[in-house]
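Quick log. Single chain, no ligands specified.
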Amino acid sequence: MAKRIKSGLKRRRQNEVRRNRNRAVRTRVRNAIKVLRAAITSGDAGQVKELLPRTVDARAISVRPALPRTATPAR
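-> predicted structure:
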């Protein structure tokens, strides 16, 4: 990107915000999956029942912005 062009500066700011959000979400999902896998490996059914909905929610939140608009697939 150009250093002084307004659109380039805006694009740079947007990319920074998106990168930080994606990084945080990706970390949250990875950690939730790791904890769930550890609980499954240990055989603790109670902990798995507690962690599974949280892990599914974290995964669903991570893909939410990537969902296509409703009109997009119809084209």
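Residues 6-42 form the longest helix (37 residues).
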